[in-house]
Amino acid sequence: MGFADRVAGYVERFEQALDARLPDAHARPASLHTAMRYAALGGGKRIRPLLCYASGEVLGVAPDRLDDAACAVECVHVFSLVHDDLPAMDDDALRRGKPSTHAAFGVATAILAGDALQTRAFEILAGDGVHDAAERLGMIAILAAATGSLGMTGGQAVDLESEGKQLAAADLEALDRDKTGRLIRAAVLMPCCAAPGLPRGSREALDRFAESMGLAFQIKDDVLDVEGDQALTGKTHGADAARGKATYPSLMGMDQARRRADALYAEALDALAPFGEAAEPLRWMARYIVHRDR
Hints:
68% of the residues lie in helices and 1% in strands. It is mostly helical. It is built from 15 helices and 2 strands. It has a single domain, classed as Orthogonal Bundle (Farnesyl Diphosphate Synthase), CATH 1.10.600.10. α7 runs antiparallel to α9 (169-189) and α14 packs antiparallel against α15 (280-291).
C-alpha cells in the first residue's frame, strides 16, 4: 500500500481529532463556538494535516503523536481563511463550497471566530499530553514563527498593499513564501520535533522540500483561480483578477506559471532524495499539490 491508500483514513482520523479538540457548539458562548466549528469542520483539502502525517511517516513518527500538530496547523490555516474572506480583506462570500463565515454569522462573529481558532491552535499544542515539554515548545515555536508578522500574517499584509500593483517576480515569490509557504513549511517541520536524534541534514532536506512545495502550492492556486471549476475549488472564480492581486499568471502568463510550478516540484523531489523510498508519502503529496483540480 502506498500513501494514496492511507489518505482517506488520515482525513477521517483528522476530522475526528479536530472535532474533539474544538469547543462544543452548545458551550457558552454558543454562537462563537458554532461559528468556529462551521469554519473548521467538514471541508477543505486538509493538505496541511496530510503533510504533517506524511512527514511523520517519513520520520517514523506514529500518527497518534501528530494529531495535535495536525489540528493546530489547520486551526491556524482556517483562522487565516476566515479573516481573508472578510469585507476589509478579500470580501469573498464563498469558501469551501459554502457561504464564508462572515456571510453565515456576520462580520463581528467571524472576526472573533478567527481569533479564537488561532489561540486554540496554541492551546492544543501547549496542552498536548503526548510529547515532553521540549518537543511541545519546538512545535509551538515553529507554528508561531510561521503565523506572525514575519510569516503568514506579514505576507497577507504585503498582499493587500500590492493590490493593483505590478510586482517583480522576486517580490511576488517573497510574498507567497510568507503568505502561503510558511504554514506549509510548519506542517512538514513540526513532526521533526517528535523525532529525537533526527540528523540536522534530514531536517534541512525536509525544509528544502517544504520551501519548494509551499511556493508551488500558491502558483497552482493562482492557476486554478483563472481556469479552475468553481464547483470543485469551492471559491469564487476569478477573485484574484477582480481585486487586482499580483499572481503568477498575471505576471508571467499561464504557461510560464505552470513551468515554474513544475520546476519547484522537481526541486522538492530532489530534496527528498536522501530519504530514498521512505519519502514516498511526501512525494505523493507533492504530486497531488501540483496536479490537483481544486
